[in-house]
């Protein structure tokens, strides 16, 4: 019996495939830091049984209508806004993602980004490297305290709760906004449910961990930034499209808020002419929320297990929907 064929849209260590080669043949885009060209992806999808994709790969009607053998798309991320779920359902293609395995790692990065922005860590590092440190001064690179301040978490899912746990170690007051109340988080972490407007007005740090939906797109807009404290710091580790970047730039440039730490952007990779890059009160990262060796390996293995489960008839571990 012929083995099922799988196409992987980004280079990954081939050693991770060894436990699956009994069941599958693999083809792979051999570049780690460059997206598979659209025409190549369309051509590969025509014949394979499974796809292992990343967020920059668009899996839409045009692709799915030609992928006559395709049974599963395993997305290497929690989010899946790059995949047309209705088209996948129409063509009987199951979509999976990688929740849980990256929650703690992403929360680590989110809190590190919060701390780096508040304490001006990147700016201080560049200050020394550029030879600008001439003497000590009382307010040299003075940043914002984190301990005993109020953190407002927008989106209290797994990652949001993990960030809240970290905030307890800094004796922070924890507020959150979510589609539904999280009684366990309220009981175990002392988190207080707030309306979105109240959270914006009362928080010293606002952290976005929301999924991208029609309701959350552009939720951080001019009106939202105007409601924040002038001392507030905004952190986004969710999706770039939840932020109106022009409004964020204006708020930062005019000191309507103190700073921002951003791991995600509307267009990725971010272009060098994006005005946010030029602001000293912004820390920009290249979408590395889950980028630890252990976690990325666990994510890839989960994708492969999902593919094996679907094609083998046992079902997916983490199906979407």
UniProtKB/TrEMBL annotation:
Keywords: Oxidoreductase. It is an enzyme of class 1 (oxidoreductase). InterPro entries: D-isomer_2-hydroxyacid_DH (IPR050223), D-isomer_2_OHA_DH_cat_dom (IPR006139), D-isomer_DH_CS (IPR029753), D-isomer_DH_CS1 (IPR029752), D-isomer_DH_NAD-bd (IPR006140), NAD(P)-bd_dom_sf (IPR036291). Residues 9-318 form the D-isomer specific 2-hydroxyacid dehydrogenase catalytic domain. It holds the Pfam family 2-Hacid_dh_C. Residues 111-289 form the D-isomer specific 2-hydroxyacid dehydrogenase NAD-binding domain. The keyword Oxidoreductase applies. Its EC number is 1.1.1.-. It comes from the Bacteria. The keyword Oxidoreductase applies. GO terms for molecular function: oxidoreductase activity. Belongs to the D-isomer specific 2-hydroxyacid dehydrogenase family. This is 2-hydroxyacid dehydrogenase.
């Amino acid at each position: 019996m012929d083995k099922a064929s799988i196409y992987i849209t980004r280079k990954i260590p081939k050693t991770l495939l060894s436990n699956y080669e009994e069941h599958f043949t693999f083809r792979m885009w051999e570049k780690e830091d460059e997206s598979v060209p659209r025409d190549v992806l369309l051509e590969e999808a025509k014949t394979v049984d499974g796809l292992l994709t990343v967020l920059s790969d668009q899996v839409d009607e045009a692709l799915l209508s030609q992928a006559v053998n395709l049974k599963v798309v395993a997305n290497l991320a929690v989010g899946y806004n790059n995949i047309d779920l209705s088209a996948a359902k129409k063509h009987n293609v199951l979509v999976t993602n990688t929740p849980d395995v990256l929650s703690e790692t992403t929360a680590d990065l989110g809190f590190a980004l919060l701390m780096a922005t508040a304490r001006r860590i990147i700016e201080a590092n560049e200050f020394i490297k550029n030879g600008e440190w001439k003497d000590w001064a009382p307010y040299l690179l003075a940043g914002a305290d984190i301990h005993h301040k109020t953190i407002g978490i927008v989106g209290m899912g797994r990652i949001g709760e993990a960030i809240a746990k970290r905030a307890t170690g800094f004796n922070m007051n924890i507020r959150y906004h979510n589609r539904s109340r999280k009684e366990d988080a309220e009981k175990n972490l002392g988190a207080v449910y707030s309306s979105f407007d109240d959270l914006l007005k009362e928080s010293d740090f606002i952290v976005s961990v929301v999924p991208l939906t029609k309701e959350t797109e552009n939720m951080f807009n001019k009106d939202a930034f105007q409601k924040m404290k002038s001392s507030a710091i905004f952190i986004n580790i969710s999706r770039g499209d939840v932020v109106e970047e022009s409004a964020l730039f204006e708020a930062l440039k005019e000191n309507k808020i103190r700073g921002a730490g951003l791991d995600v952007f509307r267009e990725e990779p971010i272009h060098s002419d994006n005005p946010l890059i030029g602001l000293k009160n912004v820390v920009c990262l290249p979408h590395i929320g889950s980028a630890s060796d252990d976690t990325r390996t666990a994510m890839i293995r989960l994708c492969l297990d999902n593919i094996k489960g679907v094609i083998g008839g046992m079902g997916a571990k983490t199906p979407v929907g």
